[in-house]
Amino acid sequence: TRCSRDWSSDVCSSDLIRIFALAASVAPFYASAADLLQVFRDATANDAVFASAKAALEAGRERLPQGQALILPTLNLTGSSVSSQNHLLVRNPTNNIPVTRNFTANVLTLTLTQPLYRPQNYLQLEQAEFQVAQAESQFGQAFQDLVVRVDRKSTRLNSSHGYISYAVFCLKKK
Fold first, then answer.
1. In angstroms, rounded to a whole number, what is the distance separating the alpha carbons of residues 61 and 122?
2. Of 36, 22, 60, which is closest to residue 149 (Cα–Cα)?
């Protein structure tokens, strides 16, 4: 049925109902996309499993510099200063001569050590590289698990929105 339009309204009530029904059926899809991104951001910030995997990744990445340090040269600087003051009284049969002797010894040592052949250090470096790769793969797995968990929960919520949209569609057909 056509509705009568008066001069103050360009849209009749049945048109408003259709527009509202269309907006109600389309809005959850746009809202769910934005909500899904926000839910994912919240999950990355608050999920304990993901936070644990992130901390394990950071700890795993720290093993590589530790392994590299084993094959790098070592530079040591040490220093010491020793001062000695002696007051002597030399006795001669003719006169007593006081003698003061000051001794100062300053030592500064710079030592550079480069391990030439230490196969255990190279093995530890190789092991550290493998541990970093393992930590990154475990973090990737935790990230994928988080994505799957967020997707499952949002799918459950969106399916309930889908049932409501379908019910509105069926009611409009009647």
1. 17
2. 36
What does the alpha-carbon distance between residue 121 and residue 88 come to, in Å, rounded to a whole number?
A: 57
**What's the token pair of residue 170?**
């069926």
C-beta neighbour count of 150 within 10 angstroms: 19
| Secondary structure string (H, E, C) spanning 26-80 | HHHHHHHHHHHHHHHHHHHHHCHHHHHHHHHHHHHHCHHHHHHHCCCCEEEEEEE
**Burial class of residue 35, CB neighbours in 10 A (0-12, 13-18, 19+):** middle
Give CA–CA dist 93/91, Å, rounded: 7
What digits encode the pLDDT tens for the residues 88-137? 767 776 777 777 778 888 899 999 998 888 899 999 999 999 999 999 99
Distance CA(23)–CA(14), nearest Å, equals: 14
Q: What are phi and psi of 11, to 5 degrees?
A: -125, 130
pTM exceeding 0.85: no
CA R_g for the chain: 41
Q: What is d(CA 75, CA 77) in angstroms, rounded to the nearest whole number?
A: 7
